[in-house]
Input
Amino acid sequence: MNVIETEQLTKRFGTFTAVDHISFSVGEGEIFGFLGANGAGKTTAMRMLCGLSTPTSGSGKVAGFDIYKETELIKRHIGYMSQKFSLYGDLKVWENIRLYGGIYGLPEKRLKEKTDELLRVLDLEHERNTLVDALPLGWKQKLSFSVAVIHEPRIVFLDEPTGGVDPVTRRQFWELIYQAAQRGITVFVTTHYMDEAEYCNRVSIMVDGKIEALDSPAALKKTFKADNMNDVFRALARNAKRGE
Output
């Protein structure tokens, strides 16, 4: 069953086409990588899927809801984590968890249980009363992801979630992604780190607003006779430049 479907989805800003007639689908429980260089159109496409930006043309459904007419229903069924994280630095760790749980509509009893559970799972019980601004970047990142899925959404959208963190923390973050997928949450993740494509079930690679390739990492490496995803991306960029 597909939880994301798009057909010829397009977004223009004046004469500039940021997303250029993209069509794809994402299955339930899939880890779907949306890859490309900075400025390729990844974030713009994600914003349309999250109901935060109206497409110029094309069609799409997220969790069964229309991206034009049912944006509020989409927002209730997804989680979202931005590049800059969405935590309040002047609130304590436990206050952030309760705030977002409340926003997502968790009842009081469940909210208290979830707060204690997350603090334990993230090994942040000793930091319960610490202001978020005082946490190391990696801890902020993991906390931000955890509050994005606190309500067990059907889909979580992650926009460049591992930017600026060290390789060890990046791997730890991907462990959280795998755990979410095992619970049936579909993960839609944008990144410009090509090595992270290896962690996805399938990846879409955007170049200048267009999807130039979409398949499993293993299939893409075979198609482009490449040893790694960086080589795949470089080959796609060359082909796009030549207009192939």
